[in-house]
Each structure stands twice: as structure tokens, then as C-alpha cells.
Amino acid sequence: MSWVVQPLVVLVNCVILYSNLTAVPSVTAAFAKSGDAELQRIDVRSMLRAAEDGFPDWVMPCLQNLRRLVVFAGSIAVLALLAAN
After folding, report:
1. How confident is the chain (85 residues) per 10-residue block, as mean pLDDT?
2. Which run of H or E residues covers position 81?
3. Which pLDDT score is estimated for 1?
4. Of the residues 26, 54, 64, 69, which has the fewest C-beta atoms closer than 10 A?
5. Dihedral angle at the C-alpha atoms of 54, 60, 61, 63, nearest 10 degrees?
6. CA nearest 71: which of 14, 4, 22?
7. What's the first-to-final CA gap in the chain, in angstroms?
8. Are the C-beta atoms of residues 10 and 78 closer than 8 Å to each other?
9. Residue 64: CB partners within 8 Å, gap ≥ 6?
10. DSSP designation for 70
């Protein structure tokens, strides 16, 4: 089961990383498709920056790096241990 689940965990984390990197264009496109003139006037980059600024400076990098470490290193460790057995 771990041979299936661990690669899926890594894949899902890659999707999360991709969505973080493309947040501004994705939200901008969603607002444009909404047809709501008020949403279309929002500066998405500034809005997302303001949301991140609501946290202490250390929180976002710490949480992101911790998630990456747990997911990637943990998955590699599990798969290596499985391969060794």
C-alpha cells in the first residue's frame, strides 16, 4: 500500500506547490470568469500579499518548508525503507 500512497502524497504536494506558484494568475482568471465587475477590479497580487502579511514573517516560510521536508523526506525515507526490505 505504501508503494501507492507515498508517490500519491508526493504528487499531491507537487500540485500544491504548483498552485502556490500560479495563485495570482489562477485567481485573476477565476475573477475574470465570474462576470462580477467588482471582483474584476481587484488587484489580486496585492490582495494575496495582504493576506500573507496578516501572519508573522516567519510563519509562511516555516510552514511551507516544514511541509516540504515532511512530505519529500518522509516519502523518500518510506520508499527507501520499503526497497531495502
Report:
1. 87 91 96 95 96 91 89 88 88
2. helix 74-84
3. 85
4. 54
5. 150
6. 14
7. 14
8. no
9. 20
10. I
